[in-house]
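Hi D.,

Good news: the full-assembly prediction came through. Inputs first.
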Amino acid sequence: MSTPKMARIGSPGRPAAFALAALLIVGAFAVNAFAPFVVVGIYTYFCVTLMMVLGLQMFMGNSGILNWTYIGFVGIGAYAASILSTAPALKSMGVPNMYPALVALQIPVVPALLIGGVVAAVIAAILAWPLMRLSDAVGVITLFAMLIVFHVIMTQWDNVTNGPRTFFGVQAFTTIWMATGAAVITLLGAYFFRESSLGLRLRASRDDRHAAKAMGINVVGVRYLTFVLSSFVAGVAGGLWAHYITSFSPKSFYVGEMFVLLTMLVIGGAGSISGATLGALLVTVMREGLRQLEGYLNNSGVINFEVYGLTELTMAVLLVTILIVRPAGIVGGQEFRFPRIGGKRKPAEAADSDES
Amino acid sequence: MIGSEFIINTLSLGSLYALIALGLVFVYGILKLVNFAYGEYLMVAGYTLYVLGTFTPIPWWLTMILAVALAAFVSYLTELIAFRPVRTKSLDAMLVTSFAVSVLLQNAALLFVSPRSRAVPFPPAFSESVTVFGATTPVRNILTIVTTVILLVALTLLMKYTVLGIAMRAAADKFTTTRLMGVPANLVISVAFILSGLLAGVVSIFWVGRSASVDPLIGFAPLLIAFIATVIGGMHSLQGAVVGGYVYGLLFNALSIMLPASLINYRDAFMFAIVILFLLLRPEGLIRGGYTEERVG
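Then the structure:
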């Protein structure tokens, strides 16, 4: 997947990571100051989604294991944080069957978000150890099966999740600043994780499992730690998402949403932070554009049937095209590097052709 | 006679599941690709049945043949356009591709037909009840069993006695070596996809026949069934898939009877928990194939 270039001493991707973090912050200020209200909402949503994608990148991008269950952990975080932060009166109205002990709970949003992440991480820690032994197709099916188990439990356990019905009444807590802050922290966290000893060992196990093992790397161990860490990020992101969207149902944590996250990650390039970020940005812009188009087509009566599914269709076509033309994603397996001025090294060709 | 009814139902459900699983394993065996788009071949056949049955005067038997043929053709097309270019890339790339193809076909159906389900006309003889061995059951169930037996015999003959079949079995064991022996890779893989689509088409007739309607998401449930059945039976052999299909049919019917009403909604969770346990404790499934970890490159 990744190009077998030697990693240079030092951290060649660091300027890119910091530049992206700075861009996110500048973007937030610019959007907040000049853009209409709708765009502020889209930017907030983008930042929360970016956090999810980066959490997914931490595990999937560095270990090479397609983690279907990820969106399930987002769901766990969303439900846990929402149950903790919502007022008892609202909960007893919205979720009539909820256990009384849960109804009585209420804590401020920020600790609720963190606890949501912890709950997701704890569940991951309990379940993941045996799963991390599996690789390739078997691993994929197992994680997929796990997602289905999660989904069935979410839709059936109506004492906690309100079953397949909508869970509503969550505070609208996530502002553009919260979301941007969380995305920036995750971005830097994911970057330093990737460069850390743990991240390096995990990437080694991705590139050649057997060689890594022979070098003394505990492949199952590094995968496990990262899976738990990635699930924590998923949980917190889920909580933030829930406090932005304020009402949701288990459908939001299933295969369809996972497809969006996967598309973002794979289009940009799963192996790098810059790839994940670029992918998230591109897909968000595209989705919003297509959604507008869909809405316009349906309302204007230009065509006489209802347009439905155009967004997903286009995304799927784009995803297949990228996989055929550039399977490592637009940015590729290495972090984006700024071309050196006057340097003799040829800048990565991905950088100038696709940066727009 | 509850007993014989249970047996016939289980046999018919098991046959259907065996065919579903078999279709998935044909591709998995050679490419080591878990094809997420497999359920959509079934959907394609379902929509063909709907379109031809509703808008054209074509007799039903011809409709069914065309539906099966189209499913096989679409399967071949996806191989040609999407899977062939990424075949040499990483496993993840291939898996994501298959998932994207699945989403693509689903949304094409959403966009070009309708998000709502469509009624599919079937000849009334299909759902009439007959009494066999003291059990009353729709003709469809008997037909499922008979068709499965015929297909299994035909496929066994194909795989055992034709050059193509032998090449395919060899490719499933050691793909690189098979290529070195002069077997064209593209041919073997294309045939695997065509057979996979063919089986999906046949399954579609019975699957769609149960509810007599088709919708864009109809392929998801069979895909999950195929996963469960292949994992139980063993992913590395065609026999394993068939055994897994029947075992799953039995397990499904047994769980439906034995689980208390309050837990019946969790049946899928139980099924997939069993899958996970199987993968952890006996990843090779009930039927052990030759050990293969090699991927096509």
